Amino acid sequence: MKIYQTHRLFQKEIGKVFRFVIILLFAILVALPFFWMISSSLKKPLEIFEVPIVWLPAKPQWSNYTEAWVQAPFSKYMFNSIFVSTSIIIGQFFTVILAAYAFARLTFPGKNLLFLSVLSLMMVRLEVRIIPVYLMVSNFGWIDSYYGLIIPMLTSPFGIFLVRQAFMQIPQDLLDAVKIDGGSHLTIIRHVMIPLSVPTIITFMVFGFISHYNSYFYPLIVTHSDRFRTIPIGLSRFKMASETGGVPWHYLMAASAIALIPSVIVFLFSQKYFVRGVASTGIKG
Amino acid sequence: MKRFYEKHLVPYLLILPAMTLVVVFGLIPVVQNVEISLHKWNFVTQKTYVAFKNYKDLFTSYSLFPKVIKNTFFYALLKIPPTIILSLSLALLLTKGVFGQNVFRGLFFVPWIVPTVNIAFLWMYILEPEYGLVNFLLGKLGILGPGWFYSVNWALPALGLISIWKGIGYFSVLYIGGLQNIPQEMYEVAEIDGAGPLKKLVYITLPLLSSTTLFVLVILVIETITEFDLPAVLTDGGPANSTNLLVYYIYQRAFNAFQGGSAAAISTVTLVMLLIFTISQFRLSTKWVHYEI
Question: In chain B, whose CA is at the least distance from the CA of A233?
């Protein structure tokens, strides 16, 4: 019996080590490209093309970062990206929470049909509506403006879906208590719904910020000048440079590294909620 | 009067901001898109009504559309099964109590949260045939690396590879969520009955994860059909249109060739594909998804 137990324990330990090694391999596969990005961003142009490859630059060229940043108006792009994504999620906060509350807690004629039409947009993505949306934005005179970048994005079907799920789980007693005290719907939303759904709301807002900060397709189509271009469009301008000469990889990697800082910061600060929030994206059986 | 207002008007006022945006930028464009697709139009001069000509033209011999459909389908095959298998495996490994598992979960998530344009440029450099990291490492193993984005055969697999790399962290977190919903007792009961790890996986874990798999599959299909960033940044649809995918083709037709009607027709077909695939997945799912635990 004792031998058997030791054997089991030994097996368990081996399993643990084995799993750890596999995960470590996965981690290397994920981390190596990022390591390569940082390492290359610090290289001299010649070190970029060297074979066999240079793992670490002989002397880190920190000046690549400042030089890359002025290859194009990156400060302006960065401001645009952050300003646009922040405005979008602030707007979404209001439209999503109000709609989610109505869909979760109130009854009214046409509710199901209206909710279904919201959900359908998760399928009928912007990419297949782009021509009419472009024409509409253009008719409003919003091409190449913050209005065009922000206003069409001010609500989120995914957000409404997610927050509605969270609002539906809040016990009715709490709502009734507020109502008895003469509280309105807005009081209920402010003092009951929002405080009890913080992780979900953070999840959808972080998701929104990241996806709009990262967005390439839509800003590419509705902006034409540096005044309104966002970071991803700015980065892709290095490709145009590549058509006239070699790609300036050291600059491109340096600019990329800076460009991903906002996403990573937002993610790190919200990781606790975000990863848990994604894990429970309303997909309980 | 106040009661009437409370009961009948308030719900509509609450959904008004969201619904206005949904209707103006979501539903009306769907109808307009169909209308545009029935015309020949370069966005500038008068539209000419041509009925279904734009749709018929998609399937003529000189049209690129069949190739684009084929590319998109092939891209889906390259990307979706490996993403599901890898992210599920990773989730299984990350829920068994491994040293530092929260740090790992965070790390695997990072490719998902950074801009696709960054990822695309990073991999453009890594997969550079002459001095890129991957071909260098392959060379160490005695393998002559392919031309990746410069090769008709390897460009699309390269896009698939990047997309898998970007997605597994996110999808494994979805699976971790699913795994955490499986009651531990089920495994204990199975162990008493003498079930080994493989049996537990096949008879408990996989069936009880099926609703997660459905969700993952739906997201992946929508994502694959609407892929734009990778071909746009990396290949411009080339070489020889081998990476020209549906949405990139819409973009080309509309904003480079100014064939508004034709681009709208492709959008409509893509939209119908999205509807068919998504709805049929939910329909078929009744056969393989177990909802109750």
Answer: B117
